[in-house]
């Protein structure tokens, strides 16, 4: 019972801003270990649910970069409201024995880059398209400023192809990445990794 109380205390400290992130090891133990992010790889997501595609993507990206991988779950995200405490614990339980996870309250990658300076973020092409959409930043200037912040924090992206809008997209199919910022985004070759199913589709299949 004490263990749960300790974990809940960590969560309260994260929500109140006392902590930037919480590290949860593969045994499910919460701690506030100070991690040097320069040699790390971060796969962010809502993991609702965690599926084989996430695990395969983590393995491929780890092999490509030779960096230590972490899953990252934010208690907030850019579109949806804060996740409930019960839901957070439920999602974290999926990772037991499968890898380290960090929990943050950073909604967007500009904020994440301040916390995880030097890290490489692993994302899908659908999210890459959103990251480069000026609508989320109040226009082109805001987008430019955001991407420069990510660059200045020595972060960059590894991008996996994804099936969306009835078509399989790789990074080269995305029309909205400016030449100026293309260097921040490296492609994971399709022959190494291809995923045609999303968490949403898996949730729907599980309900049937």
Describe the structure.
This protein has 208 residues and is an alpha/beta fold. Helix content is 35%, strand content 20%. It is built from seven helices and ten strands. It has helices at residues 2-15, 52-65, 85-93, 109-115, 125-131, 140-152, 199-207; strands at 21-24, 30-31, 40-44, 68-74, 101-104, 120-124, 156-160, 162-164, 167-169, 185-187. Strands 2-1-5-4-3-6-7-10 form an eight-stranded mixed β-sheet. Strands 8-9 form a two-stranded antiparallel sheet. It is globular, with a radius of gyration of 17 Å. It starts with a helix and ends with a helix. The model has no long low-confidence stretch (mean pLDDT 88).
**How widely separated are the two ends?**
35 Å
Number of strands: 10
Give a short account of the largest sheet: 8 strands, mixed
- Parts with pLDDT < 50 across at least 5 consecutive residues: none
Proportion in β-strands: 15-25%
Report strand order across the widest sheet.
Answer: 2-1-5-4-3-6-7-10
- The helix count comes to 7
Structural class: alpha/beta
Mean pLDDT: 88
Bulk shape: globular
Task: Indicate the percent of residues in helices.
Answer: 25-40%
How would you spell out the order of helices and strands? Answer: HEEEHEHEHEHHEEEEH
Report the C-alpha radius of gyration, rounded: 17 Å
Domain Cytidyltransferase-like: 43-203
InterPro entries: Cyt_trans-like, Rossmann-like_a/b/a_fold
Pfam families: CTP_transf_like
Protein name: Cytidyltransferase-like domain-containing protein
């Amino acid at each position: 019972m004490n263990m749960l109380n300790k974990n809940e205390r960590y969560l309260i400290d994260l929500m109140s801003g006392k902590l930037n992130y919480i590290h949860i090891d593969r045994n499910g133990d919460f701690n506030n270990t100070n991690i040097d992010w320069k040699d790390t790889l971060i796969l962010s997501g809502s993991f609702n649910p965690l599926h084989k595609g996430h695990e395969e993507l983590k393995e491929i990206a780890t092999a490509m970069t030779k960096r230590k991988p972490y899953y990252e779950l934010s208690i907030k995200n850019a579109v949806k409201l804060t996740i409930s405490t019960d839901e957070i614990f439920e999602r974290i339980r999926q990772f037991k024995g499968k890898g380290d996870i960090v929990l943050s309250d950073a909604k967007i990658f500009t904020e994440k880059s301040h916390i995880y300076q030097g890290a490489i973020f692993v994302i899908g092409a659908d999210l890459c398209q959103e990251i480069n959409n000026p609508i989320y930043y109040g226009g082109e200037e805001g987008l430019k400023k955001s991407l420069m912040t990510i660059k200045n924090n020595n972060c960059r992206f590894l991008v996996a192809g994804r099936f969306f809008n009835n078509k399989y997209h790789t990074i080269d199919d995305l029309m909205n990445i400016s030449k100026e910022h293309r260097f921040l985004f490296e492609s994971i070759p399709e022959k190494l990794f291809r995923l045609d199913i999303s968490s949403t589709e898996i949730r729907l299949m599980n309900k049937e």
